[in-house]
Every structure is written in structure tokens, then in C-alpha cells.
Design brief:
Shape: elongated
Distance between the termini: 45 Å
Helix content: 55-70%
Number of helices: 5
Number of strands: 0
Structural class: mainly alpha
Mean pLDDT: 83
């Protein structure tokens, strides 16, 4: 038997923030996907070339960031403790997966990826200026 999701208290500001997070997360994910040449590159089965422009200048993982932000926004908008839990689990999975993915990308693209990794935040932010002292 499926039980209803536990509800959090409703409030207009919280719902407005949730809707904004859904929109911004969806936009980030869509901007990331549009950089790819096709489905094989989106799924990683054929990475093609290293993408460092557009939204990838501000995040090495904008698709992941966008999905977690959108799901957290849904949890605020709904409101749903289960959606918050799912967003937290998804963030933890991405936090575990991304270092593995980065190891592969470093092998695949070499020094070019290392420079990109040193210059670009893993999750989201302003590109780094001094890349010699930058650490993950």
C-alpha cells in the first residue's frame, strides 16, 4: 500500500522559491544538453570533444546541478519531505559519481581537461583566475 507523502507546512514565499528553483534548474540542464552533438554525447557513451563554453564555463556538471536544484525546488513547491530526501540522495550519488567521471575525462582529454578542471568550479560558480593554486 502506498501512503501519501509527508507534507511540510505551506507558505507562499517557499513556493515561489521552489518554482524559481525548478525553472533555474531546468534552464541549467537544458543549456547544458544543447551544447552536445547528440544522444551518445549526452549519455557519455561517446564523449566526442571536451565542452568548455557556455554554461560549462561556470560548472563542470551543469546537468547534475540543474537536476538537483529542480528536484529541490519541487520539494519546496509541493511541499514533500520525500522529494527532499530524493534530492539529497541524488546529490550524494552525483557527489560519488563525479570524481569517477572526472578520472575518465582526464584520461580521455589529458592536459586540456586538467586545465579546464582547475579553471572551472565542479558544481557552480565564477571561473577561477589563478589556476595554479586551485584545488578540488
Amino acid at each position: 500500500m502506498i501512503t501519501p507523502s509527508p507534507r511540510l507546512p505551506r507558505s507562499l514565499p517557499r513556493r515561489a522559491v521552489g518554482a524559481s528553483m525548478i525553472a533555474s534548474g531546468a534552464i541549467a540542464s537544458l543549456l547544458a544538453v544543447q551544447q552536445f552533438a547528440g544522444l551518445p554525447q549526452i549519455t557519455g557513451t561517446n564523449p566526442g570533444h571536451l565542452i568548455t563554453r557556455g554554461i560549462y564555463r561556470y560548472s563542470r556538471n551543469p546537468q547534475y546541478v540543474g537536476l538537483v536544484v529542480a528536484l529541490t525546488g519541487l520539494a519546496l513547491l509541493r511541499p514533500s519531505a520525500r522529494a527532499f530526501l530524493l534530492a539529497a540522495i541524488l546529490a550524494a550519488v552525483y557527489g560519488t559519481w563525479v570524481p569517477c567521471e572526472e578520472t575518465y575525462l582526464e584520461r580521455r582529454f589529458g592536459a586540456r581537461y586538467v586545465r579546464y578542471r582547475r579553471a572551472t568550479p565542479r558544481w557552480f560558480g565564477v571561473p577561477y583566475r589563478n589556476t595554479d593554486t586551485r584545488r578540488d
